[in-house]
Amino acid sequence: MKYKIIALDIDGTLKGDSSLISPYMLEILEECSSRGALVSVATGRSLKSALIFLRQAPMIETVVSFQGALVSFDKGQKNVWETFLSPDQVSLSVRLLAQWDVEIVGYAGDDVYVEKMSDWAESYGERNGVKIFLVDSLEKIGRDMYRVLGVGDPEVVAELELSLKSKYSAELYATRSLPHFCEILSVDAGKDKALAWLCSQTDVKVEEVIAFGNGFNDVEMLKWAGTGIAMAGGESVVFEVCDDLAKSPDEDGVAVYLEDLLSKNQIGL
Which residues neighbour 166 within 8 Å (Cβ) at sequence distance 6 or greater? Predict the structure, then answer.
């Protein structure tokens, strides 16, 4: 059996301390692509943020962004699958987050919305190259929203995620992308669900998918994939569900693992 889809988280997986992808990593990813494998990213980043990072990786044209709420082909030129929060889900998310000590942030397209401007929000906009819009109500922006985010102390956010999953899993999909980020999306979102859709469009079996991740939001993807690889230095939860381990991103762990598979002719068509 050969792996036909390679799904890569970005932060903590493909990207380590440096914002640059090493020449070795690029060489291995290009070889995977040349053998016919579909090399994609599956990230919690917005599409815009993911594409900025991927400028240095021309072989990666398929992008799963917003925790699997959006799938794009051709370097973001074509959005081929997406799922939004309904107005009722947005209202429920905002109401629930308002009960916790967190900042509330909404995402529609590449734009970010807040009801209260803060130092964190301003800094986030500057780091990610996005404009932060101050609005009276996230429930009345008049645009489809991919996600609502709660930002706060890691202990608070961990409790928040647990509470949402235990009480509202039928209405909302909640996950942590970072220890201080709790994201709420449509129940149809998730990296695993987006990749399952991708498989259905490319006639690839789940057994032919290998996925790499390091964070809370990678757990479902690693469990779902034919082979789930956890990165050294990742959150403890990924080691509970993975099939194997890779070295850290600063050691080009993804490239080292894939090079071994290439040497065994286990990647491609």
Answer: none
